[in-house]
Design goal:
single chain; eight-stranded parallel β-sheet; about 400 residues; binds alpha-D-galactopyranose
Length: about 400
């Protein structure tokens, strides 16, 4: 009896000991990179212009316009359905699209988009419901991922509404694992708004990009309850440059270029700065009704080349004096993409000193203006230009 008691006690306690030990080591290892988004994703998304008012005809028309406008040739690839494509789940829990808005279903839409040489993205949420009140993926992650893969989906934006006390890294990890288990390459876009600092864990759980703030609105500056102007968003992403690189990007949200709330000068600055930040370039305007200026901004190949530079470095603010700033992005060829930004309300001269860019002052470098497309005279020591209010001058500097 005396021998049996300790044995019994051991048998009772042993499982507790082992489960405690197991729990300590139960943090999943970092996910292998999925090999996607080696440069920042480029495409178009329904949300900024159309909100919940989306349908298969709207998305097909956008795909047509991506091709006809030259945007596809300029690098835009992903056609992204945001919130509100959803219908209900059936008794087995399978999600289906809204049958009125998507009468032919998502597979047919994906086939159409793929037929244009483009890729299709979809949207869900880590909680019970999406921000628009549609069914979320919580508890259905693997089922939804399989469905997306069967439809031919290439990109998932995964939002964070209605998540209650859920843990962000593990919620996003579950969906990353679910996407991976499908065997289909699917870019994973984390839309957690930066609250849980996804730049610290987004790549490790298998994400390709993560939002760094609340939603953008079509304004130069100023904050709403959940929305921020272009300058406010820029200031949030500015310090996060160490976290960006091939396969894993900071996402300061989609573009507002062409939506009417800013001037073309401001839109050129917005687009230049997003390229300078190696941000995803996701247009958010009505592609079927673009002004020539909007189209010229969105298809500026020299600026896009800065965004897509294979080094994948995010630009940094290297000088600031009041409203006047110098931003520098190292390029794979050893050059720099430089943005001179004037936040003020009068024309101002801004100088980028070579030393601020990490070059010796005696260096003579070639300079190309990315908005006029002209080669300027080579310069030694620095480059200066007059910059419009709320505008930029953007150049490449090549030693
Ligand atoms: C959140 C996201 C937006 C958009 C909407 C859709 O606000 O941050 O980008 O996806 O939800 O409801």
């Amino acid at each position: 009896m005396n021998r049996v008691l300790p044995l019994l006690a051991f048998l009772l306690v042993f499982p507790l000991l082992t489960s405690a030990t197991h729990a300590d080591t139960d943090i999943p290892p970092p996910a292998e990179p999925n090999g996607l988004a080696l440069t920042p994703p480029m495409g178009w998304n329904t949300w900024n212009k159309f909100g919940c008012n989306i349908s298969e005809s709207l998305i097909k028309a956008a795909a047509d316009s991506l091709v006809a406008s030259g945007m596809k040739d300029a690098g835009y690839q992903y056609v992204l359905m945001d919130d509100c494509w959803h219908g209900a789940r059936n008794a087995a829990g399978d999600i289906a699209p809204d049958p009125t808005r998507f009468p032919h279903g998502i597979k047919a839409l994906a086939d159409y988009v793929h037929g244009k040489g483009l890729k299709l993205g979809i949207y869900s949420d880590a909680g019970d419901k999406t921000c628009g009140g549609k069914p979320g993926s919580r508890g259905h992650e693997f089922q939804d991922a399989l469905r997306y893969a069967a439809w031919g989906i290439d990109y998932l934006k995964y939002d964070w509404c209605h998540t209650s006390t859920q843990d962000a890294p593990s919620s996003y990890r579950t969906m990353a694992d679910a996407l991976r288990a499908t065997g289909r390459p699917i870019v994973f876009s984390l839309c957690e708004w930066g609250n849980a600092k996804p730049w610290n864990w987004g790549a490790a759980i298998g994400g390709n990009l993560w939002r760094t703030s609340g939603d953008i609105w079509d304004k130069w500056q100023g904050k709403g309850e959940y929305q921020l102007g272009v300058m406010d968003i820029l200031d949030k992403v500015a310090e996060l440059y160490p976290y960006a690189g091939p396969g894993h990007w900071n996402d300061p949200d989609m573009l507002e270029v062409g939506n009417g709330g800013m001037t073309d000068t401001e839109y050129r600055a917005h687009f230049s700065l997003w390229a300078e930040m190696a941000a995803p370039l996701i247009a958010g305007n009505d592609l079927t009704a673009m002004t020539p200026a909007t189209k010229a901004i969105l298809t500026n190949r020299a600026v896009i080349a800065v965004d897509q530079d294979r080094l994948g470095a995010q630009g940094r603010r290297v000088a600031k004096s009041g409203d006047l700033e110098v931003w520098s992005k190292p390029l794979a060829d050893g050059g720099r993409a430089v943005v001179l930004l004037n936040r003020g309300t009068t024309v101002n001269r801004i100088t980028a000193d070579w030393t601020a860019l990490g070059y010796p002052a005696h260096l003579t470098a070639k300079i190309r203006d990315l908005w006029t497309g002209q080669d300027l005279a080579p310069a030694t020591g620095g480059f200066a230009a007059d910059v419009e209010p709320h505008g930029v001058v953007m150049v490449t500097i090549t030693p």
